[in-house]
Specification:
The complex is a heterotrimer of chains A (28), B (221) and C (302).
Chain A lengths: L1 H11 L8 H7 L1
Chain B lengths: L1 H18 L4 H12 L7 H4 L2 H4 L7 H12 L2 H6 L9 H18 L2 E3 H8 L4 H13 L4 E6 L4 E7 L8 H55 L1
Antiparallel strand pairs in B: 1-3, 2-3
Chain C lengths: L1 H16 L3 H9 L12 H17 L3 H12 L8 H17 L3 H12 L13 H17 L4 H12 L9 H8 L6 H9 L15 H17 E5 H8 L3 H13 L6 E3 L4 E3 L6 H25 L3
Antiparallel strand pairs in C: 1-3, 2-3
The chains are: A mainly alpha (28), B mainly alpha (221), C mainly alpha (302).
């Protein structure tokens, strides 16, 4: 199902949610 | 993302049209679909028998073009331009939008220099206008622009058609998520159990202390 | 008194014919409506007050028009005549518009756009009039100052199916979705504005220009984590230092979140402590996306 696969592809790329040095500091 | 919801209805129109045509007609459908504003999904059309039949025919270039729009980028087009039909401005715009979607697949941050090279847009204002008007406002990209760092910070992007081999990667990512989620839930459960145990010990200790206090009070009286 | 009233009405109609609106209004306002010498019913008083207010409005005299519409407001409830009630509401909306109370005017115009046709006024309220009222509601909402009331009005208008057919719909959509407004589309919108809507404010800019700049600044804050004032000025079509001044004012008034680095000439829209909150939103979006996929799978019988 192309539509579902596209949705899953988009979903999988959502994580990591944020990828920055400053975020990693705050998260820790 | 909202734009993904609209893709099925849009592409279905072309799939229905393609069912009733062959050869030149099918090639024309490919051209219309690749020009259609708001359409970024081509997998269903690619699977249509009449489109697949273009393989090896005089209109094979149309099939190659459709494959490019399904999986390729602007750079791929430039590298194979001699064997592909020339693109109209709407097609060029769409292919550049699809390129951004592909770039967002691999990285959460897209440097301006990378975008500039991949999209052949050297002027910063033009590049930002393209990202804002043609990617963010069309709903294919959720992002923020960082002028200080000269990059686009991607929050989410609409999904393109799946390339062969990509399915394994996606399945692997989902398995990782599942594993991490289960481990995290287990860790949380352990913490909860520990906290409950600690709380129970504290309660018992307090009860013991209170009992001894009462006893001491009674004996003093 | 009766004869005087009749003469005044006659002279006023001549002034009206000659488009001498203020003179006609002054002639009619000389009729003594509060006299104890003759019986004057509420309907007559209401009709006169509304008529006088309308005449003053024709000459853009909102102050005098307001005086008479206020008198009418005491009478409108006791007089259950639909045609007069409609005239009163139209006049009131136009006065608010003329006095640049755009938010209130928008509400009144929107109410008017939903006026239901009845037998008594069927030949005076047609689709064109309703559409005109709706367009006026959109225009006034766009000109109104940003805030929760305006946001609610924008949402109401955007979701009203009738607005999709209006020429102002594209700009309404952009304002509602908080998108950057380009100079060309603002210029096209400005062409249909009335003179009082294009008047200059204290700082020398028009109401529309100020509303657009502030809107675009807020739109930019949604698009950028930071931007130089040079680029911001280019985006907004104004000088960089003006962009900085307006941005600083909006930040000071808490209408926009951000911090300004004057040395680097850059505005940071989000304070850095908000990254964790941003992360929360992203995680929520992931959960929402997962739910969406599961729903789709269920619909397809998987």
């Amino acid at each position: 199902d192309h539509s579902l696969l596209r949705q899953v592809s988009s979903l999988v790329r959502r994580l990591p949610a944020i990828d920055s040095a400053h975020f990693r500091e705050e998260f820790l | 993302m909202e734009v993904e919801g609209r893709q099925v209805a849009l592409v279905e129109q072309f799939v229905l049209l393609a069912k009733n045509v062959r050869g030149r007609g099918a090639a024309e459908i490919v051209k219309q679909a690749t020009c259609e504003p708001g359409l970024f999904a081509f997998g269903e059309l690619l699977d249509t028998p009449s489109i697949q039949e273009l393989q090896g025919s005089e209109h094979a270039a149309a099939l190659d073009l459709l494959r490019l729009f399904a999986h390729g980028t602007w750079t791929d087009y430039k590298n194979h331009a001699s064997s592909l039909p020339p693109l109209t401005p709407p097609q060029i715009l769409k292919l550049k939008q699809l390129t951004v979607m592909s770039l967002a697949e691999n990285s959460k941050t897209l440097p301006y220099d990378l975008l500039s090279n991949e999209l052949d847009i050297s002027n910063t204002r033009e590049l930002e206008d393209f990202v804002i008007n043609d990617c963010m406002y069309t709903g294919i990209l959720d992002a923020k622009l960082d002028q200080r760092q000269r990059r686009v910070e991607v929050q989410a992007s609409a999904g393109r058609d799946i390339r062969p081999g990509q399915l394994q990667i996606m399945a692997g990512a989902l398995e990782d998520w599942l594993k991490t989620s289960e481990e995290l839930l287990q860790t949380i459960q352990e913490k909860v159990t520990y906290a409950e145990r600690l709380s129970e010990e504290h309660r018992k200790h307090k009860a013991e202390v209170d009992a001894r206090k009462d006893e001491a009070t009674k004996s003093l009286k | 008194e009766d004869q005087v009233s009749t003469i005044r009405e006659g002279v006023a109609s001549i002034y009206e014919r000659d488009e001498e609106w203020t003179q006609a209004a002054q002639m009619l306002s000389g009729i003594d409506l509060d006299t104890g010498m003759r019986v004057v019913d509420d309907r007559y008083k209401l009709e006169k007050c509304i008529h006088i207010a309308m005449l003053y409005l024709q000459d853009d005299d909102a102050v005098n028009a307001e005086t008479f519409i206020k008198k009418a407001s005491f009478l409108v409830n006791s007089c259950k005549e639909e045609a007069l009630e409609l005239q009163y509401k139209v006049c009131y909306a136009r006065i608010l518009d003329a006095k640049r109370k755009f938010q209130e005017a928008a509400l009144r115009y929107y109410e008017l756009s939903q006026w239901e046709k009845t037998n008594t006024v069927a030949n005076r309220v047609d689709e064109g009039d309703l559409q005109q009222a709706l367009t006026a509601a959109v225009t006034c909402t766009i000109l109104a100052g940003a805030g929760p009331q305006r946001s609610r009005m924008l949402a109401t208008l955007y979701k009203d199916e009738r607005c999709a057919a209006l020429p102002v719909y594209p700009i309404l959509q952009k304002v509602y979705l908080e998108r950057i407004l380009r100079q060309a589309e603002v210029a096209a919108f400005a062409q249909d504005l009335k003179p009082h809507q294009q008047a200059l404010t204290a700082d020398g800019s028009t109401v529309l220009a100020r509303a657009v700049i502030e809107h675009n600044l807020l739109s930019a804050s949604k698009l950028y984590t930071n931007i130089t004032f040079l680029e911001l000025g280019a985006l907004l079509g104004i000088a960089p230092d003006k962009a900085e001044r307006i941005a600083a004012r909006m930040v000071a008034q808490d209408r926009m979140k951000g911090s300004i680095d004057q040395v680097e000439g850059i505005i940071q829209f989000e304070t850095e402590t908000e990254e964790i909150k941003q992360w929360d939103h992203q995680i929520a979006a992931v959960c929402f996306a997962v739910n969406g996929i599961l729903d789709n799978m269920q619909k397809k019988g998987m």
